[in-house]
Fold:
Amino acid sequence: MRSYTLHTRLGEPPELVAEGFAWGALVFGPFWLLARGAALPGLLGLCVAFLFALLPAPYGSAALPVLAWGFGLFGHDLRRWSLARRGYALAGVIRARSQEDALARLFAERRELMAEALAT
Structure:
């Protein structure tokens, strides 16, 4: 079972963000964040990665894996932070086997969210 945090904003469909390590963020770094709507952390991550790439050989090649590991560790937290900046409120935590199961369980328990999601 995996935990997901539920984020809601009036007039918008709910957002689920997984807890734990973000393997996609480890592999794809700031592009993973940009694809998930975390524009500010994604752009800052691109700038930092570019600056690390400009470092001399032993330092830059050592710093980039550390940056990638940081994206993996904090990728979901950066998504939650970006959602909070856009006005989403933390509405709860759901445990389910997959994100689809979490959404099904969420809509079964909270029918008002289903109405909001279908209205948009």
About this structure: Residues 2-119 form one domain. The radius of gyration is 17 Å. The chain has one domain: 2-119.
